[in-house]
């Protein structure tokens, strides 16, 4: 059984005070003894104070990016060790905004994924197709290229430590969601790709989220699908009440 994991991606939103207010509001709204693994991926500037706020909570904290080298002359970058030192457990790797706006390549993303695994951070590896690729029937080809590049060569025992977020780019921040059936079909395909690289047993252990305009109205249907193990949520994670409704989707 794969544990559902729902992560917020706040992107470049919220000052530290706003982040702390969110947490104050959010904590009591989360169902007690929830079976959902909850993660907040927040801007670097709020990691330290939220790490304090969430110390004894069931809510994990993640960064939205990292640099794959320990230390050095990389102005403006943050290393995996720096994140670990703050008690951070998760890191988003290869979000489509980083791939598209900051020209991150599959090769660079692989370096980050491997570094995250080596130091013991849980990577949330984002993959997904553009609208053009979807319309030309190239969805799985694109996902295959991205997954193969990232996970080939990763020791098999590390595979269950990776969370994959399937995020069709045309659905991110657009209000357009893949139907639960389409998301399930693609995610099933992604699991088969992992099975081809490793084997079925290994592929069954990898948690695969759906991301792209997830909201309190569509989460339940998405989570009812066999292969969808959670969600990466952007816009709807910025309000404590709506993100709480999402993580409490079972209730
Ligand atoms: C995201 O940022 O990864 C995302 C899926 O955003 P949204 O939920 O706003 O589409």
TrEMBL record:
Keywords: Cytoplasm, Gluconeogenesis, Glycolysis, Isomerase. GO terms for biological process: gluconeogenesis; glyceraldehyde-3-phosphate biosynthetic process; glycerol catabolic process; glycolytic process. It catalyses: D-glyceraldehyde 3-phosphate = dihydroxyacetone phosphate. Substrate binds at residues 9-11, 173, 213, 234-235. GO terms for cellular component: cytosol. It is found in: Cytoplasm. HAMAP family: TIM_B. This is Triosephosphate isomerase. It comes from Desulfonispora thiosulfatigenes DSM 11270. The lineage of its organism: Bacteria, Bacillati, Bacillota, Clostridia, Eubacteriales. The gene is tpiA.
